């Protein structure tokens, strides 16, 4: 006896399973609670650091621990922002795009806390000392420049700014996030140069190189018609 043939037009199980899984992920990403949940998750590091500082749980040098932890969370959020588009395109999850603005603002949030912690603990909020210190130390200079670029991106991250600038100019401006990634790695490298500890620096350099390289390949190296969206 011959095996029964599947109905005409039926999809093989693996492909159908992938489509079902993709649809389930899409539904989860579009759920009304998805954005509040992501927001709450990304506030947890801040809440923990605030509690640890208040409870004197940051070790022998709490100021340094706080500054570095805030810098670490800035880098992690930046990696996640740049990961949104590759995941959206490669896995077919367009709803991921709805989280990009929020994640970008968390990059700015943690970067601002990181910079203010330096101004507070290292400079005692002496703005004259801050201005004098920035050009003297390369890692402070590039870190401040990265923060200023993030400030410009955060200030223009809303719909009114998109309408005022026009979509092409807004997209061109927000590609400055790539420069922020380069400056962030350079800032981290110079900060660790004094201790000759580059292991974490290498990890972030590889991650950012892969994420920016993927965009370059999609824009200029991929087969025609498959170029990546001009958004970040």
Task: Tell me about this structure.
This protein is mostly helical and 232 residues long. It has one domain (38-221). Helices cover 76% and strands 0% of the residues. The protein has 10 helices and no strands. It has helices spanning 13-30, 34-54, 62-91, 100-122, 127-136, 138-155, 159-165, 167-174, 176-193, 199-221. Helix 9 (176-193) packs antiparallel against helix 10. The chain starts with 12 loop residues before the first helix and ends in an 11-residue tail after the last helix. The relative contact order is 0.09.
What characteristics describe this protein?
mainly alpha, disordered N terminus, globular, 10 helices
